[in-house]
Amino acid sequence: MPTTVTVAEIADLIGVEDTIIRRTIERRDDDLQPYLHEDPEYNAQNQSDTDSPVSEVPTPLLDLEGLPLLITKLSFNIPTLDIIENLACQVLHLTVLREEKTDLTSKNRELQGQNAELQTRINDLQHQVSELQGELTRQAEMQSRSWIQKLFNRPNSEGS
Fold first, then answer.
1. 78 exposed, middle or buried (CB, 10 Å; 0-12, 13-18, 19+)?
2. Please, is 4 exposed, middle or buried when counting C-beta atoms within 10 Å of its C-beta (0-12, 13-18, 19+)?
3. DSSP code per residue over 63-118
4. For residue 50, which of 20, 110, 118, 133 sits 20 to 30 Å off, Cα-Cα?
5. pLDDT tens sequence across 56-71
6. How many C-beta atoms surround the C-beta of residue 37 within 10 A?
7. What is the pLDDT of residues 20-52, one digit of tens each?
């Protein structure tokens, strides 16, 4: 998992418009400053664009450790009802993810058990195949010997 997130990723995570997040980050708050890093891809893109203003401040990346602090800073500008709604959505999302994880874990255990059973069957079948191949080889050798014996031990019917 990445250790930094972009403004768009933060907006997806917490359900706040990216313009609000961008404005809060661009204030360069002293508390947030240690968690902010320049985005080299964004800087390269802005330098290659001739239409973008030179004075535009590039949007930095935020360390995940700074996300709780950013959310606190954002909460000063967001009505309480919106914060509660966002938190309720996040709790619901986390609950759904937890249930999915539980279901996937049980399915994974079940599939691992089936896999072990199938692996045992495959090993048994491979053992049976090797035994049958050995038996076929022995039968072929015995048949070859009997043909040779019949060929050389045949009584001479013409003149003996």
1. middle
2. middle
3. EGGGHHHHHHHHHTTS-HHHHHHHHHHHHHHHHHHHHHHHHHHHHHHHHHHHHHHH
4. 20
5. 556 678 888 888 888 8
6. 13
7. 888 888 887 788 888 888 766 654 554 455 454
